[in-house]
Design brief:
Number of strands: 3
Largest sheet: 3 strands, parallel
Order of helices and strands: HEHEE
Distance between the termini: 29 Å
Helix content: 25-40%
Radius of gyration: 12 Å
Oligomer: single chain
Mean pLDDT: 86
Structural class: alpha/beta
Strand content: 15-25%
Low-confidence stretches: none
Amino acid sequence: MEYDLEMERAIEEIKKTNAKTVCIQLPDGMKPLATSIAENLEKSTNANILIWADTCFGACDIPDIRGVDLLIQWGHAKWKELY
């Protein structure tokens, strides 16, 4: 299955917030993509990218992590536009 990871959007957010340490969180089915996502983000932003390897049961499953400037979550389904 191919996903639209919106990498440019993630890169823009990292740059906009000047995040130096970023945690990425993916559901189990997308975890095989984690290292390539992290490498792409590091190369494009110079931020230190951490991969959350624990379970992820959706956007409400926020990791209890400290010392991170930005958390980026990916999922299988598209969010409904709220605005």
